[in-house]
Amino acid sequence: MATSSGGGSGSGGGGTYSYRNGATHSHKSSSKLDTHTHKPLSLNSSSNSSSKNHVKSKSLGPSSTTQRRNSTTSKDHHPSVPGRVRVAVRLRPRNAEESVADADFADCVELQPELKRLKLRKNNWDADTYAFDEVLTEFASQKRVYEVVARPVVESVLDGYNGTIMAYGQTGTGKTYTLGRLGEEDTAARGIMVRSMEDILADVSLETDSVSVSYLQVNRFSTSI
Ligand SMILES: Nc1ncnc2c1ncn2[C@@H]1O[C@H](COP(=O)(O)OP(=O)(O)OP(=O)(O)O)[C@@H](O)[C@H]1O
């Protein structure tokens, strides 16, 4: 949803898409994009080892749900239509500069996490409301963001589906923080990429599976890998 870049007046609303089954998604926006794609992050089993009781074929389609592993978490995390794009919005805390300037974005952005809605006030009498699959406040931990946004996609990848996690938003809204933080100083700060790799590597067999990873950053007309 292109409207998930909530966070007016320089606040940090970053949208996060997650998607599985390998379809592409595009939207028209001049925002900078960070893309963490699971398609190149492919899992290839080099043998038909029976040591794994779940399928890792990339050719599985949505109709192959009967072949999916019996994962309660997968089901729990996919209460909605399987295969559709899910969109979350995360608001970052004010930074020091904004605090000093007493930026008033709190007055124009109102998160309603229970209702999974974000309200953008245009003025005292008018507001637009946007619905999301997840609404993550400035107090949401990296762990929580991973669990609600990325873990379902990682589990789908481990079931043999393609999946994509993409963060978008204007500069400084927290895309790199959300996706790319390594957490070297503080492991609680680990971002989606590190946590995804941890879960994937914990699940695969290093003897029989191969894992490749790529991380893309799309900035208007340029892409860096
Ligand atoms: N949830 C958060 N909690 C605390 N600090 C955050 C959070 N999100 C972002 N920040 C901080 O905000 C600043 C900008 O974040 P970040 O670099 O991730 O933005 P970005 O969207 O990747 O920007 P750019 O598009 O310019 O690369 C950083 O200093 C980062 O540490």
Automatic annotation (TrEMBL):
Signal sequence, renumbered to the chain: none
Where is the Kinesin motor domain positioned along the sequence? 84-225
Low complexity composition-biased segments:
41-73
Q: Which InterPro entries match?
A: KIF11-like, Kinesin_motor_dom, Kinesin_motor_dom_sf, P-loop_NTPase
Q: Does the keyword Cytoplasm apply?
A: yes
Localization, UniProt: Cytoplasm, Cytoskeleton
Q: Where is this region: Disordered?
A: 1-84
Q: Which GO terms describe its molecular function?
A: ATP binding; microtubule binding; plus-end-directed microtubule motor activity
Keyword match Cytoplasm: yes
Query: Predominant location of this chain?
Result: cytoplasm
Gene Ontology annotations for the cellular component aspect, listed alphabetically = mitotic spindle; spindle microtubule
Q: Which residues does ATP bind? A: 169-176
- Keywords in UniProt for this one? ATP-binding, Cytoplasm, Cytoskeleton, Motor protein, Nucleotide-binding
SUPFAM superfamilies from the UniProt entry: P-loop containing nucleoside triphosphate hydrolases (SSF52540)
Annotated Gly residues bias:
1-16
Q: Which GO terms describe its biological process?
A: microtubule-based movement; mitotic spindle assembly; spindle elongation
Family per similarity comment: Belongs to the TRAFAC class myosin-kinesin ATPase superfamily. Kinesin family.
Instruction: Indicate what this protein is called per its UniProt record.
Output: Kinesin motor domain-containing protein
Question: Organism, per UniProt?
Answer: Arachis hypogaea (Peanut)
